[in-house]
Amino acid sequence: MMASSIMTEQALKPSLLELAITFNKISLASFGGGLSAWARRVIVEEKKWLDDEEFLSALTLSRVLPGANQMNFAVYVGNRFHGVAGAISAVLGLFTIPFLIILALAYAYFRHSATPAMQDVLRGVAAAAVGLALSMGLKTGEKFLRNPIALFFGALAISASVFLKLPLIAIIAILAPPAFLVAWRNDAQKNDAP
Amino acid sequence: MTPGGILSLITFFSVLSILSIGGSNSVVPEMARQAVEIEHWLTAAQFTDLFAISQTAPGPSNLIVALIGFKVAGFWGALVAQLSMMIPATLLMLVVSRLWVASSGSQWHLALERGLAPIAVGLIFASGWTIAEGASLSVVGYAIAAACTLLFWKSHINPIPIMVVAGIFGWMRWI
Predict the structure, then answer these.
(1) Which of A132, A107, A38 is nearest to B59 (CA)?
(2) ipTM of the complex, rounded to two decimals
(3) I need a labelling partner for A162 at 20 to 30 A (CA). Which of A111, B6, B10, B64 fits?
(4) How far, in Å, CA of A20 to CA of B144, rounded?
(5) Yes or no, beta carbons of A69 and B23 under 8 Å apart
(6) A36 part of contact set with chain B, CB < 8 Å
(7) Residue B72's closest CA among B90, B84, B88?
(8) DSSP3 helix / strand / coil % (chain B, rounded to 5)
């Protein structure tokens, strides 16, 4: 829209209803894995509610703390714009309709012992979900290509997860302190420069 | 529906909520132990079926909890179990989110954000790998994953129709 070409923080601030609708949309599209990639698409690219840096830190918080990652992320975004009320709207938006769907499936399963033969469909969706996750890694990682320190820590995180199969919490616990110290020192040097 | 059943749903899942570090799938083995071996809410085969249903359905990864609650005490059991699983972890996340947002602009916040970003990106790549391994893709599946990576990276195409088509390919057993 031409009229809204001058975007202010205020204009970007979503209403409670918009938070609920957006998280409902994200969660309904999240089957087959790769939810965080879809969340980035909607929250960062479409809605521009968070920039990439804040998205990545919110995602890391959501993954490190206990609870379903998607719910934690909804809490973060909801709280960011509307405090407790925002967190509640985002979580309700995320969970209500999937909850009703799963109850319908539970009813079908226990009444008619019908196991949905979904494994094949799921495998197909997973192939696309892999692409969604990797493309998100490329989009958020592109800017680190000329930054050897960032590449080093990124590569360590990938190897620790893929080859060593370390749990996420262990990877963060080991890599975060040195990564933090390096970033801290670089900032300090920048500030010292005249 | 027994009050005892509802009460054990609340106590079990609200403790599990705080223990589910790294996502709710990390406590699925503990859920199975409690629901199958200790409380006999479900048989082992039912648990496996319900886990598959919860992974297939859209929504957050902890909906298996609603399915267990449904078996114990119908709709209200599902709601109570799900809320017990959600509320403690959600409250903790709320507190930490507020501290994190309140500290934005401080030097340690910026350094932490900058230091963690490449690690987060590495973990995103790793999550793509994990999905691929879990789905036991065929060669065609990997080719489609690679094509989707390029497509979603370089274009602004809506991924949903692509995922539906990939689902149909899977249904036809082409992937």
Answers:
(1) A38
(2) 0.84
(3) B64
(4) 33
(5) yes
(6) yes
(7) B84
(8) 80, 0, 20
Residues B3 and B77: beta-carbon distance below 8 Å: no
B37 DSSP 8-state letter: I
Q: Tokens for A64?
A: 């490190």
Q: How many CA atoms, within 13 angstroms, populate the side-chain half-sphere of residue A182?
A: 16
- Taking each helix axis as running N to C, give the angle between helix A148-162 and helix A168-192, from 0 to 180 degrees, rounded to the nearest 10: 170
Least CB-CB distance to A132: which of B66, B120, B159?
A: B159
CA–CA dist A172, A123 (Å, integer): 30
Residue B16: its chain A contacts at CB < 8 A? none
Helices marked H in B33-136? 44-56, 64-102, 107-135
- Tokens 């539970």: give the residue: A106
More confidently predicted of A130 and A89: A89
Handedness of CA B172, B142, A158, A70 (dihedral sign): negative
Residue with tokens 């990797």: A134
Looking at beta carbons, which residues of chain A come within 8 Å of B130?
A: 161-162
Residues in chain A: 194
CA distance A168 to B123: 8
Chain B CB contacts of A149 under 8 Å are 118
Q: How far is A1 from chain B (nearest CA, A)?
A: 19
What does the pLDDT read at residue A97? 94
Q: Which residue, among A11, A50, A55, has the nearest Cα to A37 in the 3D structure?
A: A55
- Give the C-alpha separation, B136 to B140, whole Å: 11
Gap between the Cα atoms of A191 and A23, Å rounded: 40
pLDDT for position A4? 40
Chain B residues 77-106 with CB within 8 Å of chain A: 78-79, 82, 86, 88-90, 92-94, 96-98, 100-101
Mean of the pLDDT values across residues B91-102? 96
